Structures
1.
Amino acid sequence: MSPPKHRVIHAELLDRITSGAWPPGAAIPHEEELAREFAVTRPTIARAMADLVNEGLIERRRRAGSRVVERRPVEAVLRIPRVRAEIEASGRAYGYRLLRRALSDHSSPPPEDFRGAGLRLLCLHAADGRPFQLEDRWIDLASVPEAAGRDFAAEGPNEWLLDRVRFSRAAQELTAEAASAEEAELLGVAPGSPVFVVTRATWNGPAPVTRVRLVHPGAGFRLVAHDRAAGGAAG
Amino acid sequence: MSPPKHRVIHAELLDRITSGAWPPGAAIPHEEELAREFAVTRPTIARAMADLVNEGLIERRRRAGSRVVERRPVEAVLRIPRVRAEIEASGRAYGYRLLRRALSDHSSPPPEDFRGAGLRLLCLHAADGRPFQLEDRWIDLASVPEAAGRDFAAEGPNEWLLDRVRFSRAAQELTAEAASAEEAELLGVAPGSPVFVVTRATWNGPAPVTRVRLVHPGAGFRLVAHDRAAGGAAG
DNA sequence: AAGTGGTCTAGACCACTAG
DNA sequence: TAGTGGTCTAGACCACTTT
C-alpha cells in the first residue's frame, strides 16, 4: 500500500538536493540525526543514503560525513538495441542476409588478442528492404566453439550470441565516420557519406569472446540515452 | 581487512552466473537456503541479491523466487566529458571562443517548451588550436535567470552550467550527420563530411533548463562506453 | 582519540502471488 | 493459502579517517 520508508526518505533527500536546499558541496546530517528526524532506525537511513551514492549524488566518508557531490560527471545509460527487435518494434519488416563467412588464415588474421582461430562474418540487416546495419563480426572459436558448426545463413550471429553466450566485460566505442567504398555500396549510400559506427568488444574473464563493428547509415539513425539517475548538475 | 560478506557472496553468485553453472532462466535457491549455505543471515543474502538485481542480472518475484534473466538488454554507461577537462587531460591546449550570443525574439524563437525567454549561445571549443566542438546552446532564462547577466566571453556555458545549475532529468541523442555549410566552415572540415552530434535536453522537474547541440568533427572523435555491470549474454 | 559510516545479526511482520 | 521476497527494528561491533 504505502511506499517503503527507505524510498520515501530517498525521495525527500533527493528533493533537498535538486531543489537547492542542499547545494553541491553541502554537508548532509549524520545518519543518526536523520534517523531521529524521520523516526526510523539507522540502517533504514543507510539504505536510502546508499541509493543516493549509487546514483552518484552524494559522497560519504567515514568520520568526514556525507556531502552532496561537487561536480557530477554527465553520465547516461545507452541501450544498444537488438537489430531484429528494434526493427520489428518499429513496425518495419526485418531482413537478414549473410554476405561472407570465413575462418581466419594468414591473409586474414583474427584480432590480436584472440586465443584461437577466428570466425569472421559479414552480415546485412535491413528494415523494409532498406539496409539498416552492416555487421562485421569476429568470433573467437576458442571461446565459442559451437559457432564453428553454424552457417549463420538464416539467423544473424548477433541474436544467436545474445541468447547463448555469456560475457563478463564489454567495451564499446561510438564514432561518426565516412562510409568506405564497400560500406557505401552495401548500405546503399554515397561513398564518404556519414555513417554511425558502434564497435563492441566482449570478454569472458580474460578470454575474448567476440568483436563487432556495426555500421549504420547516418541518415535516420540515432542512439538514445537516458539518465543514469536523477539530480545533479546540468550541462 | 577482509571484504564484506555481502560482497563475497555477490562475487560468488556472479561467478555462478557467468560460468554457466546458473544459465539464463535458471532458478536461484531461496534466500533462506543461501543463508544456510554461506552461514549468514537472510538480510545479508538479500543485500547481495539486491546488487545483482541492480545490475540487471537476476529477476525476483515474491512467491515465484529468483531467476537468472533470460535476455539481458545490452546496456552501457556513457560518460559525456566536459570539453575543457577532456582536452586538457589529453595534454592539449584548450581554446574557447564565443561566436554568437543572442536573446530569443520572433525571428529566432526559443525551443517550444521553454517557459520564458531563451538565451542562445554559439561557441567553439578548440584543442591545440584546432576546432574540437561546436556548441549550439539554448538556456531557458526562466530556469536560469543568472545566465542573462553573463556574457560568456571567457568561459563556456557548458562549464558554467555544470558547476551551478541543478537538473533532475536529461535526455540525450547521438547521431552521425553530414556537416552543414556553416558547421563545416566553423569546424574546419569539408561540407558534408561526417560529424558526431550529441543533443542533450535538461529539465529540473517539469521546467526546461537548457538544450544543446554539440557537433564534433568525425575524424578522431570517439565516445567510449563502459559496462553497466558484469555478466550476462554477449552480442 | 573520537566520531562517523559500513556491516552484520536475530527476529519479526507484511505484501504479494503462484498454485 | 502458503511460501517467497521486501522491509524494518534494535542493537552491536568494527574500520577508517579526520582532528
2.
Amino acid sequence: MHLFWEKGYGSTSVADILSRAGVNSGSLYHYFPGKQDVLTAVLDTYIGGIREMLLEPAWRGVVDPIEKIWKLMDGYREALVQTDCTYGCPIGSLALEIHEPDPPVRERLAKNFTNWTDAIEDCLKAAGRRVPPGVDRRALAEFVLTTMEGGVMLARSYRDIGYFDRAIDQLKEHFNRLLRPATSPARSGPRQRKKGKSHA
Amino acid sequence: MHLFWEKGYGSTSVADILSRAGVNSGSLYHYFPGKQDVLTAVLDTYIGGIREMLLEPAWRGVVDPIEKIWKLMDGYREALVQTDCTYGCPIGSLALEIHEPDPPVRERLAKNFTNWTDAIEDCLKAAGRRVPPGVDRRALAEFVLTTMEGGVMLARSYRDIGYFDRAIDQLKEHFNRLLRPATSPARSGPRQRKKGKSHA
DNA sequence: GTCTATAAAAGGATAGAC
DNA sequence: GTCTATCCTTTTATAGAC
C-alpha cells in the first residue's frame, strides 16, 4: 500500500514489495496470483478502511458537517506538506497512472471515488437547510472530489502547496455563495442574527 | 507524443516508439540520449504548440473571452468522448504518473500548466469589468485548470463523461455567481436590462 | 544517419526443497 | 507456508557495419 502511494504501481517492482515486507517471493505468490492482485487487494483495503483510515482521524472532534469537509481537505493538505508535495491522493495517482486498467482494477478505483463522494454527500445532507433546495448535493459532493484531486495534481507538479490552497479557497468561495450561513446551535429562543463571514 | 498520451510514459517502450515511428533503434539514439529525453522533447512540443495545437482550434470563431474558456473545456470533453473516456489531458496524466520526476521533466510539466493558466487568465482579463475587482483572476484561472483536470480524472476512472460534465457545470455555476452578466456589445444607448440566466 | 545485432539489466513469475 | 535458486521475457541502451 505504501509503496504504491510513494512510487506508483508501475514503478514498484515485486522485488520492492518483497524487500519492504521482509518476505520472499514464494510467500507472496502463495497468497497472490500476481502483482495486479496485490494492487486490487490494496484498493480493497482502501475501500474497506475509508472510515477508520481516512474519515475518523480527520473528523475527530468535529461536529459541523460542512466543517468536516474542510477538515478532510486539511488532511490531504497535511499529507502533501509532510512529503514536500510529492505524495498526493493514492487513488487519484493510480487512476491516472494506469491508462487501461483491467476491469477489476478500474471498478475498485471507481468504488473508492464513489465511497469518498458518499461521505461528502452525507455531510451535505447533514447540513440540512443550509444547502438550499435547488442545489444538487451529489454533483456538489463530486465537485469537492474534483477540486481536491485537481488541487493535489497542481501542488505536486509545482511542488508548491499554494496551488492546493488556492483551489480549496475557490471551493470555499463557491460554498459561501451557494450555501446559507450556518445557524447557531439552536439555543431555542428568538433567532440569533450573526454578522460577518462564516468562513474563508 | 501520441503514445505517451495513449499509454503513458512508463508503459510506452522504446520499441513501441520505434515501431510507431517506423525507424530503428540507431536512429532514435542518434538524436536522443535516452527515453527521458524523448519525453522532454514531447513536453517541449506541447509547450511550444499550445496556441496552434490547442487554443486556436478551440477558439476558431469565438470572440467572447468567457465563452473561450467553455470552448476549451468542450475540447477536452470531445477528446474524452472520442476515446470512450480513456484518454484525458496528456500533461495531467504524465504529472500523476511520474511520481518523482527528474527536474527537467517536472519543470516542463509545470511550464505546461503555467502556459495553460496564462491563457485562461488572459481570457479573464479580456472580460474586463465582467470580472469584479475583488476577484483574483490568477486564482480563478488556476481553478479552471484544477476543475478540468479533476473532471477528466473522474470521467476516465468511471468511463463516464457525466462526471466531467457535472464538474464543468459546477464551475459555470461558480462563474455565474462570481461574474457580472455580459453586457450587450455596446449599442451606445441607455443600459439594457437583460433578465434570465446568461449561462449554464 | 540508418541499419542489424546484441549486450546488460530488471522485470514478473515459477520450481521444488524444506 | 516459506525458503533459495532460476527461468523467461521485456526493457533500455550500445556496437559497429554500411
3.
Amino acid sequence: MRQAGAGLAAASTPARGRGDGGQASGSTREKILDVALDLFTDQGFDGTSMREIAGRLGITKPSIYYHFASKEDILLALHTRTHELSKAALSRLASQPLTLHTWGSALDELLDPMAAHRKLFLMHDRNQAAVEKLHRKDHEDEHDDFQQRLQQALADPSLSLRDRVRMACSLGAVFGCLFTAGDAFGDVPGAELGSLVRDAVRDLMTGRSAAQA
Amino acid sequence: MRQAGAGLAAASTPARGRGDGGQASGSTREKILDVALDLFTDQGFDGTSMREIAGRLGITKPSIYYHFASKEDILLALHTRTHELSKAALSRLASQPLTLHTWGSALDELLDPMAAHRKLFLMHDRNQAAVEKLHRKDHEDEHDDFQQRLQQALADPSLSLRDRVRMACSLGAVFGCLFTAGDAFGDVPGAELGSLVRDAVRDLMTGRSAAQA
DNA sequence: GTCTATAATGTGATAGAC
DNA sequence: GTCTATCACATTATAGAC
C-alpha cells in the first residue's frame, strides 16, 4: 500500500537552483518522479511522452521543463536513486576478493533495499537500454552502474563457470522473485518477501550440487 | 558462434502473399529479422528506427515495407517465434495441476529452447512493454503470452506464498543466468549452460529450506 | 510555477518510378 | 524487390506572457 508510491524523497538534479540547501524540494517535482516511475515501468521510457506524464498530474508539458531540464533528466533522477540504494552493497562487493561467499554476502545486503523499493528497481531493469544510453552521454569515464558492476563480476575469469552460473542464478532468483513475478507478490510486504527469497538463495548457494570451497 | 545469428528460419506474417506454400521465403526477410533482433535487444523496440534497420542491411526504409507491413509486424514475427518455442512447455504446465513438482518439470522443459535461443528470449524479455502493447491490439481475446502464463501460475492462490516464491526464484534463476548475465556467458554453448542451470534450479527446488510435499 | 503558442526534428508509412 | 520523394504526425524542447 505504501510501497513506493510517494517514497522517492529528495534525490536528483534540479533544473534550476532553489536557493536553500536543496532539502525536500517542491512536491510537484516528486509527483513528476512518481508518475514517471509508474509510466516508465509500464510503457517503457521511450514509450512514455512528456505530455502523458503532465496529463496525469493535471498540468501541461512545459511545466515539467521547469522542474527537469529534459526527459532524460527525469530518468537520471530515478537512476541516481537506485544507484544510491545499491551503493553500499556494490562497494562491499568490490572491496573483497570475489568468491562464492562474498558474492552471497553482497547479494544478501542488496536484497533489502531492492525488496523495499521494488518498483524503482523494476523500472531500472525494464529500461536497461535507455539507462545505458544515459551513461554513454553523461560520463563516459567511469560509470559504476548497477547492472554493469554485477555483470562484470559474473564474467570474472578467475572463477569457474560452475560458480559463475551459481552466482548468476542467485542474482536472477532475487531479480526474478522481485520483478519478473510482476504483481504476483504486489501485496506482500517487502520484508516478508525478502526473507523468503533469502532462504531460497541460501539453498541455491549451498545446495549439494553447489560449490566446494 | 552459430548461436542464433541466422537461425530464425521461417515463422511470421508476410506482408504480401508469395504464391507457393510459404516455405523458406526470401533471405532478405530473414536478414531483417536478424538485424531487428540485435537492435531491439540493444536499443529497445522504440529506440530502434526502421531507417537504422535498413541501414545495417545496405537497403532503404521502404524496402522493409515490402517484407513487413509495419514495424510492429517485425516484432510480432519475432514474438511468434518465442511463442512457438515455449508452446510445448507451457501447454504441459497448463494441462497438469500446479504444484512445485509440475512447475519444476515445465521449467525444465522450458530451459532447453531458452538456452538454445537466448538472444530471442532476451529480446522478448527486454521489450515487455512493446510486446504487451502488441497483444492489446492484435487479439484482445485470449492471448496466451509467454510471460503472462508464467506470472499467472505464480499468482495461483491455491499455493502457499513460500512455494510461489520458490517458483519465482527458480524461474528467475533461469532467466537471470541466461539473460541478466548479459554477455558473461556469451561464448558458452547453450547445452552446457543449460545443464549447469538445471543443477542450480534443482538445488533451489529441493533445498532443505524448500517445500514439504 | 504554470500557461499558450511554436519551433525543430525524427518517425512510421505510402506513392509511384524502375 | 529496391529505389526517390514525400506525407502526416508525434515528439522533445523553447520563447515568452501571466
